[in-house]
Amino acid sequence: MGERSRATTIADVAAHAGVSQASVSRVLNGKQTVDPAIVQRVQASIATLGYSPSVAARSLVHGRNDTIAMVVPDLENPLFQGILKGLSLAAASDGYRVLVADTAERVDDEEATAIEARHRCDAIVLCAPRMPEQRLRRLVEQVAPVVVVNRPLPDADVPIIGVDYVRGIRDLVEHLLGLGHRHLAYVSGPATSASNAERLRGVEEAEQVHPDLRIDVVPGGSRLEDGYALAEAVLGARDDGATAVIAFNDLVALGLMTRLRQLGVDVPGDLSIAGFDDVPMAGFATPSLTSMSVPRGEIGAQVWARLRTLIAGGPIEHSVLYRPRLEARESTGPVG
């Protein structure tokens, strides 16, 4: 077999152009101080030799590799998928790629995963991190530039893009109150989830505003299988008088409805069910699922807008909190 052809290097370009390797690097870096004649010779040699700098070489020359990372707790969640899509499309328009790291809800892995990802990329997105607040504050300083999604971090010197879960829960409660429900159950999310804490705040505020309202909290989770497994606990809440259920998210609601249907429970005739996030399958469920819609793609695009500014050395822009929109569907109805 013949010898494999050797890739052209900066040294080859320098020798062909009759200049130093440092001069070639300065031309590749776009330095304005290089003699125009040298620039022409180097560019001609690059064209003649077919030289193309590797990603690693460009990173050394420019100090970046046009890649960012997004760390998520559960990539199976359509909410995070939608944010990732919006982020990827926006970043691609500026020539950036997005790498994804899924921590699979392992809180102890988040910090190390984020640090390792940052070593490989120009910047990082922390999506709904579960770690304690003090650890998160230290981490955002360590991995900057960084944008945090769906995690309140008061007074932190970092952009936050998120959802107003407190207002969203209160709006959903108002919808159910309008249907005559006065005793609800809230199926909570992961104990380490900051957005679950915000939802619980919404539950508490709703009860304060409506003294005749009762909302029982049923410990839950964030996945389809969690909702499926919680059906008996939810039926226990119904036996105590609850006529409607708000699930932590749509996945939990959909899993719950599947099991309730198997148990012969009519939704919404026997029990109204509502979710959160308005994932794509919510409108195609049977019955279609009432939910609070979150602008996933727009959140992703806004994350990139702020991250791009930080990468360019610009100022930290203001944080954004989106108010969810009610999508009333078949799974909620009047008290039977």
Automatic annotation (TrEMBL):
Database matches in InterPro entries: HTH_LacI (IPR000843), LacI/GalR-like_sensor (IPR046335), Lambda_DNA-bd_dom_sf (IPR010982), Peripla_BP_I (IPR028082)
MF terms (GO), sorted A to Z: DNA-binding transcription factor activity; transcription cis-regulatory region binding
Gene3D superfamilies according to UniProt: 3.40.50.2300, lambda repressor-like DNA-binding domains
Family annotation (SUPFAM superfamilies): lambda repressor-like DNA-binding domains, Periplasmic binding protein-like I
Domain of life, per lineage: Bacteria
Keywords annotated in UniProt: DNA-binding, Transcription, Transcription regulation
HTH lacI-type domain span: 8-62
Pfam families linked to this entry: LacI, Peripla_BP_3
Transmembrane segments: none
Record-linked SMART domains: HTH_LACI (SM00354)
Protein name, entry field: LacI family transcriptional regulator
Organism: Agromyces mariniharenae
